[in-house]
Amino acid sequence: MSPVAVTQAPPSPAPPPAGPAATRRRGRPARPKTDGVAGYVFLSPWLLGFAAITAIPMLMSLYLSFTNYDVLSDWSATEWVGLDNYRQMMTEDPSFWHAVRVTITFALVATPLKLAAALGVALLLNRSFRAGGLFRGLFYLPSLLGGSVAVAIVWVSMFNQDGAFNSFLGWFGITGKAWVNDPDYALGTLILLAVWQFGAPMVIFLAGLKQVPAELYEAASVDGAGPVRQFFNVTLPILSPVIFFNLVLETINGFQGFTSAFVLSGGTGGPVDSTLMYTLHLYNKGFTEYQMGYASAMAWVFLLSIGLVTALIFRTGKFWVHYSDGED
Amino acid sequence: MTLRARPFVLVLLTAIVLYPLVWMLGSAFKSPQEVLNNMSAWPREFTPGNFIDGWNHFDVAFGRFFLNSAMVAGLTVVANCISCLLAAYAFARLRFRLRGFWFAIMIGTLLLPGHVLIVPQFVMFKTFGWVGGDWPYAPLIVPQLLATEAFFVFLMVQFMRGVPKELDDAAKIDGCTAYGVFRHVILPLSRPALVSTAIFSFIWTWNDFFRQLVYLSDLEKYTAPVALTLFIDSTGQSAVGPMFAMSVLSLAPVFLFFVAFQRMLVEGINTSGLKG
Q: Where are the transmembrane segments (chain B) (predicted)?
């Protein structure tokens, strides 16, 4: 996967000015062409971190996924079980498939809704007006707070039997229920919590909207295009790289929801597995049942799936993402 | 939409978006009976009782959890600022073999979900004897000392690319080595990027739950988010008010940061994202 295409816009560093530095040396040895040693000195914490915290654990987890390792017994009791964990996952663990379904549903529903909300509000805020910055900040606030346990707790209470949502429904004479305890609705409340945090992609959309040249709108309106056509024929195509960027980011985020599901279900993924996010199932397998070999296998399936989905989004991007020539 | 309708739509949207927070704040001040039967955001009478009950709800005072959270967040801030700045300087300014290769890998780790590595990391830290014990926070902080938070490396690289190269060259002509350029040019000029990194590090670590849940098992060592989940398990209705009160308190630092640095937080997202 190469997110570089979108995220790394800036120009490559200018070529080193060879002239003055080379001619100006006064008796000092010529400056070496590269900062090889210094480069690796400065990079060394990152390199060590990449090796020890990322690369080696990744290989280790691949190895563990073929074993029955549990953290409680001794290493010597660990056996190579081949593809057993993977087979068990696919055929003997119904909760695994529940987790897959819950996670895909969550990502598939929450991501488009969140992006639509983000784009919609960004369009409202786009033209500069007094207090625009204030609104932008207030809409962004949930993105800062929303991932916390505290907000998840409040959210669950809000959608409980005697929560704020039911009192709102009461105005219309509707008697609500304990939405968070109903298998049909529990995941829906978590999706709402994710959509509520539309502020972060909204801010990125706003930055993107600022880049749309005003001349294009003028030209379009001279040609007789109304606001709707301008949106579909000017705004959307020009904004498509930003939409793409947000889509990749939010989809990957969507797959990783954990905190809200943990809080709603007290860690179980209930009611009846309806909020069993993949990461929650992985956590329970690895850290409450101590089946770390199995959890490692789940982690690899997760990683490959996310890679696949990202690759898929990049593949479709070719058909709908337009990069204008003028960009940088 | 006509121009005149827009302010009303915006105000309505703001009210909907902020309502959960207002409701939480109001509920935190309701009396135990009111919390159960008054669903509006506004308490009939304000009582601070929930804050006192919540603070003393467990065997360990809630203040201890806040202190633990503050320590983890504080150390993470320092670790991220130092390690990511060093790595970013190498990527943005120094020329060395395989730079492009390592940079691509760093970008790749941006998208790597932390959940994938949690099991082997746990096994590794346990082997080191870092899990449990008197100071169980090493697994939460040591990775940050090694610049594993690629987002901040990337943010700082983007920032440094905006610093004029001529300054480096001038310093070099004056006899600065790569280390001197870092010390006298990049470090002082990177202050805005460091401040963004510090604020985001603090907020994300303060809100982080997954890793703290995995590594902290001793009540005495719990951070605030992990301690908050204990309220969920104590199912008694009497805990609802104190739970809200402690939730409000735990969001207060993030909220204060938001009030103080609102513009910067919003801009920080942009500098890291699209345009350098």
A: 7-29, 65-89, 101-123, 135-157, 189-206, 239-261
Domain extent at residue B26: 5-47
Residues 143-172 on B with a CB inside 8 Å of A are 143, 145-148, 153-154, 158, 161, 165, 169, 172
Same domain, B26 and B136: no
pLDDT value at residue A109 = 97
What's the pLDDT score for residue A13? 45
Domain count, chain A: 1
Q: Are residues B96 and B202 in the same domain?
A: yes
Name every residue whose Cβ is closer than 8 Å to that of residue B15 and which is 6 or more positions away in sequence.
Answer: none
Task: List Cβ neighbours of A79 (8 Å cut-off, separation of 6 or more).
Answer: A67, A68
What backbone torsions phi and psi does residue A80 show, to the nearest 5 degrees? -75, 125
As a whole number of angstroms, the distance between CA B203 and CA B74 comes to 10
Q: Find chain B residues with C-beta within 8 A of A155's C-beta.
A: 20
The answer, yes or no, to whether residue A129 has pLDDT greater than 70, is: yes
For residues B146 and B70, state if they share a domain. yes
Could you list the residue range(s) of the whole structural domain that residue A138 is in?
Answer: 94-320
Higher pLDDT, B3 or A213: A213
Residue A257 lies in a domain: yes
Which residues 80-139 on chain B approach chain A with CB closer than 8 angstroms? Answer: 83, 86-87, 89-97, 99, 102, 104-124, 126
The pLDDT, as a whole number, for residue B235 is 59
Query: Are the beta carbons of B173 and A144 separated by less than 8 Å?
Result: no
Predicted pLDDT of residue B274: 36
Q: Which residues of chain B are modeled with pLDDT < 50? A: 272-276
Q: Are residues B158 and B247 in the same domain?
A: yes
> Tokens representing A310?
């990202």
In a domain, A30, yes or no: no
In angstroms, the Cα distances linking B180 to A321, B104, B162, B192 are: 43, 27, 19, 20
Tell whether A38 is covered by a domain: no
Residue in the structure block whose two tokens are 């902290």: B216
In a domain, residue A202? The reply is: yes
